[in-house]
Specification:
It is a single chain. Helix content is 9%, strand content 42%. It has 1381 residues and is mainly beta. Strand 61 and strand 62 form a beta hairpin. Helix 6 crosses helix 7. The longest helix is centred in the C-terminal third of the chain and has 35 residues. It starts with a helix and ends in an 18-residue tail after the last strand. The relative contact order is 0.08. This is SH3 domain-containing protein.
Length: 1381
Amino acid sequence: MALAHLSLAVHILLLISLPSHALYQPLPEFDLSGFQQVVVTGQYSGLSFATDTNQFHQADHGAILSLNTNTTFDILSTINGNITSACILPTTNGSFDLYIAGNFSMTGSASTMNIAKYQYESNTTTSLDQGLNGPVNTLLCDTTTNAVYVGGHFTAPINVMNNSAQLAEFGGNVAIWQNNTWSAVPWKGVNGPVNAIVRTQYGSIVFGGQFDSTTDGTFDYIPTSQPVSLTLPAVISGGNSADTVGYNNPSSIVCPNGTQTPWLLQDNQSGYWQATFPHPVTPSLFRLINTNYQGRGTQNFSILALGTNQHFNLSYIDPTTSQMRFCSVNCTLPSTGTSSHDFQVVTPILASGVQISVNSWYGAGGGLSGVAIFQSEIIVHADNDINVSNCTSTTAYAQNYGTSSVTGNWTTSLAQGSYQWVLTNSFSTANFTNSSGAIDYKPNLPENGNYSVYVFTPGCVGNSDCSRRTKAQYITHVSPSLSVNATVDQRNATDGYTLIYRGWIPATSDLFQPHVSMTLAENATQPSGKTANLVAGYVQFVKEISNQELNSILEYQIDQWLQNNSTAAWRPLKNDGLPRNSIVTTLDASTLDLIIGGNFNTSNFTNIVQYSYSTSKMIPFSSAGLNGPVNTMLINGSHLYIGGNFSRPTNASQLALNNLAVYDLAAGTWNAMENGVNGPVTSFAKYTSPNSTSNVLVVSGPFTSINALNVSSGTALYDITQGAFVSTQQPFLSGTVISTYSVANNTILIGNIRAAESYQVNALSVIGNQYQFNPIPLFPTDVSYHTNAGMYWTNPSTGNSTMIIGGQFQLPNNIQNIAMLANGSWTGFPMTNWQGQVTTLTVAENNLVIAGDFTAITDGQNLTSLAVWNLINHTHLPVQDLQNDDGSHPIVNIVRKKPDGSGVIVGGKFSHAGSLPCSSICLLDINNLQWSNIGGNITGEIMDLDFVSNQLLIAGDLVVNGVQAYLALVNNDLTSTPLGYNNRTSLPGPSISVFYDSTNGKAFIAGRNASNSYISQWSGDDRTSLLTTDLGTNSHISQIFMVPSTQKSDVLSKGGLIMVTGQLDINGYGDTSAALFDGNQFHPYLTTAALNGSTGSIRSMFFGSCCPDIGEKNYLPVPIVILISIAIALGLVFFVVLGALLIMYLKRRNEVNTSPKGAPEAYIGKPPRRPQSLLAMLMPAAGAALMTERSSMSEHQTNGRPDSEISQHRAFSTGNRLGGEVVEMGSGSAVATGGAGHHLRSRRSLSERLTPDPILPPEPVYFPMPSRDSAASEVPNHRSSFAAAVQIAARNNAENLPPSEERPHLYFAKFEFKAREHGELGFNAGDRIIVVDANDDVWWMGYKDNGFGEPKQGVFPSNYVEKAPAAVNSNNPYRNSLQST
C-alpha cells in the first residue's frame, strides 16, 4: 500500500504544477511492487508518464513547450511549419511576450503568417497584423526601443486589401514591429536574405545575411508610384466583347469607382481587353476587379506586353491562404466579391501597350469590372492631360498622380521619332528676354530618399526646329530653403535625357511639395530667326539606392538617424574586410567585439572572424578559422561554442572537431566537444532543467549520431560544466530546439520539436515504482531499433543474474538482435547475416529458445525463425527447421515452456517442423531437441497462448476443425475447440494477446480487425463478450496482463486492473503506449516517442518477480488484531505447556515399551533432545489451535479454495507474441524470469509463491534489487518427472537404510498439513512424499508434487506420514499430479 499512497501523492503534486488549462488524468489505485521490477521493451527513445490532456508528445512541425518540475512537457502552442527564431520582450505587468518566427501560416488555430506573438500570462497566440509575405530567419527583441527587428526572405508585411501600398514602403527582408504596427527601416530593406540581427555594445544594430545593397531605389519596391493614364491619348479596345449594349464597352472600366458597368465577353468565348499607350511604359503592377455579374467572371488570364509579345511574370497574394503566389500564362482571378486584386510585375518589360487575355471563366462567360495599370517610374509630363486624364475624379487614383501647370501659350504635338506627346511654347525673338512661357512639374513622391531627376527633351531634327531652339532653365525645389538650378540646351539633334539634380528629396506631404520649374534660361542664346521655341517633354524622378557597397553586413546607427535623418546612419562596417558574395549566418555581439560566422573565405580568415571596433579591423581566429561553414554560435564566459558543417580548424588538420568546437577567446585555442556529431549543427540553445542546476547546451541539427557511437534524433544535450554529452537523466527531444527561457520553475522550449518525453531511454527501461524510471544502458548504433521481448536468467555456476533481450537492434561489438546484460555490460551471440527480428524468448533447462521472424547464420548453419542456445556452455544446439508447405518464410510468434519444464510450446505460422507435419503449434522436447505435434486440427497463425490448468488457450487467426476462429482451447487429449465462433461480433477480428485471470475466473483477449482494436473476455463457455472498441483507428495492442489493484468493477469483480500496451489512441486523450483498463474505460499510463519523433510503442513488459496477488486484501483493524493476538497468546501459553508435558510423558512411556531388537533406530545414535525439538514437536498441535483463524483469513484470499486448487489455476500469461518467460528453476537451481510472454499469474500457485527471486548483478545496478519472500524452493537435482522419482523412492523402501538425498524413501501423508512458516511443506492426506532426511525425530525433509509434475521441497512433521510398501508404483492415485501432455 506504500506505493499506492506514493501514487496518490505524486498525482497531487502533478495536479498542483499543471497549468490551469490542462485536464488532469487521475489513475486508479494499483501496486507494481510485487513484480519487483517492470522492464519495458518497445520501439521508443523517449518515455513519459501520462499526466494530463495538455501533455505534449508529438507535433508535425514547430511547437512552444513548457518543461515542468515534474519532468513532463505541456503544450503552450503548436505551429504548422518551421520555427527559425524566437525572442522575448518584457511587458509592463511584469510578464513577457514571446515572439516566434519562421515559415508557417497557423499558430494553434490562429492564422499567423510567418510571425506571431505568444502571451504567456493569457496563454494566447496572436498574429502581428496580417504577418509577413515570406519566411523569417531571425529576430531581435530590442528592449531599448521596445521593438522587434525582423530579418528574413520576405518582401513586406501582408496587406491583402492594399498590398501595393506595403510594397511601396518596404524594400524587402527587413521590417520592424513596434507599437503594434509594422514600419520600415529608413533604407526600406536589402536585396538579399537577412540571417542574423544583433545590437552591439555601442548601441548600433547590425544586420547580417547575403546582400550587397539597400533596396530604397529599385524597381520592385515602388510598384504603385504612379498610375498609367488609360484615357486619351491612350487607346482602349476589346476582342469578342459581348453583344449586349452597355456591357460591351472596354473603356468603361478604366477608372473604376465601384459604380461602373462591367465589360463582358460573349457567352462561353475567350477574348481580350487591350490598352495602347501614347508612349512606352514599364508597367510595375496591374490592379484588376472581376465582374461578379450574374455569376459571370474571369477565372484564368494572362497579360501580354505589346511590342515585345512577352507575357508578364506576376506575383500576387492568395486571398485564401495569404501566401505569395506566382503566375504567367495562367493566372487566377477570384470569383467572389468586388474588391480589387493586385498582380505585381516580377520582371520589368518596356511595353507600348498591354493585352489581358481571358482564357477561362466562371458561369456563362468572362469579363472585368476594373483595370488600373501602375508604373514604378515617377514621371510628370508637361501635358497634364497625360498625367491625370479624366480619372482625377476618382480619389484613389488622383492622389498618386503627379501634375503640371503651364504659364503662357503652349501647343501640344507628337514628337517625331520618340512619339512622345510634348508641349511647345513659340514666341517672337523680338521680345526674346521677356518670354512668359513656364511649366511647373509637381511629382507625387511616396517616400524620402536619394533621387536623380532627369529631363526628357525630344530631338530637334525629327521636329525640324533646331534653328528655333535655345536653352531652358530647370530649378529643382528640394526643400523650402533649398533650390538647385540647371541649364539644358534644347538644341539636341536626338532625344535627350539630362540629369538636373541628384540628392536627398523628402516625400510629398501637406507641408511641402517638391517640384521642378522650367523657364527660359537667363543665358539663353537668341535664335537667328523671328521665332524661338521652348520644348517641354517630361521630368522623371528616379529613386537611387542609398548604399551599394555592402558585403552582407549593414550597421545601423539608430541614434544618429533619430537625431538628424542622415543617410550616413546606415553603412558597411568600417574597413569591412569581408569578401564579396559572403554569406553571414550568425552574429554575436555579447562582447565588445563583433564575431561573424558564416560561409566566406579570404587568405587571412575562413568562415569565422572577429571584428574589433577599437581598431576597425577584422581579427582572424587561430589557425585562420574553420574549414567549413559556421551556422550558430553561443558565448559562455570566455568560451565560444560553435556549430556548423566543418571537420577541423583551417590550418590544423590534426584536431578533429566534427561539426562542433569550443574556442577559448582568452587563450586563442581550439578544443573539441568530445567526438562531435556526424552531421551539420544548425542551432544552439542554453537549457537548465527545472530540477537541476546543470548548465546544458542543447545542440540541434540534421545529425544521427553523437560521439560517433550513440544514435540521435537531431538533438543532443551537452553539459558545459562537465564538458561531456549527457545520455541519461535528461528529457528526450526529437527535432530542433531554437530557444529556451526560464519562467518561474519551468523552462520554455521553442523550436521544430517533433516529440518530447520526460526520459531519454533507448527501447529498454525499468519502472522503479508507479512514477519513476530507471534507465538501462542500451546504446544502439543504428537509428532504426526496437526491443520486443526480455527475461532474466540466473547462471547456476556463478549465481549472477543476466537480463536477456531480443528485438531488432545493433549494439557495439557487433551485437545484433539478441543480447545479454550482466554486471553492467552487454554480450551477444555468434550469429551473423541477420535479416528480421527476434520477437519471443524462453529458457528451459538453461537452454535459451530464440524465436521470431528472422534468418541468421551460426556455426555455418542457417537459422530460420528459431534457434536454441545453451547458456551454460555457450553453444548452439541444432534443431530441425520450421517450414511452410508453400515455401514461404515461417514465423514464430510465441514460445512457452511447459509447466513440467520438459518442453517448449512453439506457436506461429508454419506447417512442418523438420519432416514432421506440425501446423501452427508444436512441442519441442528441450532435452532431446525433438519435435512432436500437439495441435493437429489447428491451422492458421497462432499469436499467443496461455495455460488453463492442463489445457492450452490459443489466440490468433485460426481454423479449428474447419471452422474459422480467433480463439481456441486445446484439451488434454490434444483435441481443440474453437471459442466464440457462434457469436462472431464478440471477437471482431484476429486475436493478438490472451491471458487467464484465475482471481476473476476469466480469460481476456486483445486483437484487431481491419479498422480497430478490441478487448474481449471469455468466462469458460464457447462464447466471448466484447468489452471495448473505444480506441482510435490507429491503435494496435501488443500485450495485456493483470496488475494488482483493490479497485473492482463489473468485469473485474474481485479486483485488479488490466495493463494494455502497444500503440494506443485513447478517446479524449490521444496517443499512449500503456494504459490501465478497468473493464469499462482506459486510464492512460505511459507515452512514448520514437527516435524520428513519431509515436512510439511498448511491445512488452517483463518482470523481476512473478506474481503478486491481484485482488483486494481484507484485514481486520490493527487494534482488534492486537487484542485478539494477546488473548490467543495468553490462552495458548497454558495449553502449550500442558500439552508438551503430556506428550513428553506418553512418548517416554512408549519408548520404555519398545523392543530394542525391533526398532533399534528409535534410540541408537540419537542426540539429546533439545528444547527447540520439543517445541517443534508441539507445533502441529499448537498450530491446530491457530488454524481456524488462519483458514478464515485464507478463505478471503483464495475465495475458499484450497491451495491444491489454486495450484491447478496456474496462469496466466501476458500472452504476447513479443514476450519472454516466467520464473523457472533449472538444473542446478538456475532461475529464469520474464515477461511479456511470461506467465503472469493473477494469484500465484503455492509452488510459485515459494520460488526464489532472481539474484541481481552487484553494484552498479540499473534497476531495483528485489527482496526474497519465498516460503520454499524448487528441487535442485530432480528435474525429471515426479512420477519417475516416486518409482525410485519406492524401490528404496525395501532397503533397511535411513532415507537420504542419494537413497530417498516413499511415504504417504496420513493427515493434511498446512504449511505456516518459511521452509515448511504443506500437503493433503493421501499425497505421496519423497523423504530425503529423517535424522530429526520431529521434522523431516522431503518433496511432493507441486501439481505440475515438478517436485517441491520443504520440512514437515514426521508423525503426519507413513512409509509406503515397497510394491507401490507410479500408477497409484495421488493428489495434485498433472498428467503428462
